Amino acid sequence: MRIGLITDIHYTENAETGADFRTAPDLLASIKFFQNRHVDFVLQLGDLIKGSNGRANEELRQILPMLKMYKGSIRHVIGNHCLAVPRKVLLQALGLQSAYYSFSEKRLRFLVLDGMDVSVLNEPETDADHTMLHSYLEQPELHDYCGAVGMRQINWMKSELMNACAKQEQVIVVCHFPLHPATTDTKHGLLWNHREVRELLGAYPAVSACIGGHYHYGGYAEENGTHFLVMPAFVNRMEHPESAWAIAEIQNKRLIITGAENNLLFDLELKKNIAP
Asked: Model confidence over 35-74: pLDDT tens digits?
């Protein structure tokens, strides 16, 4: 399996010119790159737009035609900047019924999480989520532009993980926010309830890797045989052009990620035992 990876595009609608002429050529170059390498699908890992005040809807309107130039499937992840557009409008524009969902490809199950499920930008669905939100907002070290996975999503994750184990599928978890503190910094932060989510994932041997964005410089950590990867941001491509976008290849129980200049970023061994 070959997967295109791109994150934190932060497309900006320029108030003077009406378009982001710096981003568009490089974004189209990434689409051509994925097309030429015949990836099975592309994972867009969140923060598709910058979410500028009063211009977020126009940013989304401008970037969508560029994405549609890719003649294949793009799986979208919701980031915090994306929600400058109303959630319902955003989901409809990206063709999503829910901000968290799963899909299977070649005996691999992908769980796409909504890290802004419990956040200042989403009305809590349950009393437990309401309590969770207030608890996290009272912790000054946490950023209000991050969020948490809510209880209904947690229960959905448990069901998905049990089914994956029963079907002998390996699982790759995808979330905009980093899930491991070693893969981010204090400024960017991470998923509020990252500990609980990692404990849940660690209870299921099917989980091989977690891939995300948000921390613009990328990161890696390993915990109990599970790989936690954060991909570098497209918006910072001038600082790291070789990893402005990437391809993840899964073959012979290995996850091999190469960058935009065909440079090796990761070569990781995946779990061999995925029995329940």
From this structure: 999 999 999 999 999 998 889 999 999 999 999 999 999 9
What is the three-class DSSP state of 67? helix
Task: Give CA–CA dist 116/78, Å, rounded.
Answer: 8
Query: Which token pair is 221?
Result: 């950590």
Cβ-based burial of 268 (10 A; exposed 0-12, middle 13-18, buried ≥19): middle
- Sheet with 2-6: strands ordered across: 74-76, 41-44, 2-6, 246-251, 254-259, 264-269
Chain centroid to Cα 121, Å, comes to: 18
- Domain 2-269 falls under CATH 3.30.565.10: no
pLDDT of residue 272: 61
- Kindly give the parts of the chain with pLDDT less than 70: 14-21, 272-276
Structural tokens at position 173: 């978890």
d(CA 189, CA 141): 9
> Quick one: pLDDT at residue 52?
87
In this prediction the pTM is 0.94
The residues near 7 (Cβ < 8 Å, ≥ 6 apart) are 44, 45, 46, 47, 176, 212, 213, 214, 231, 232, 233, 234
DSSP state, residue 184:
S
Q: What pLDDT, on the 0 to 100 scale, is given for residue 276?
A: 40
Give the count of alpha carbons within 13 A of 151, CB side only.
Answer: 10
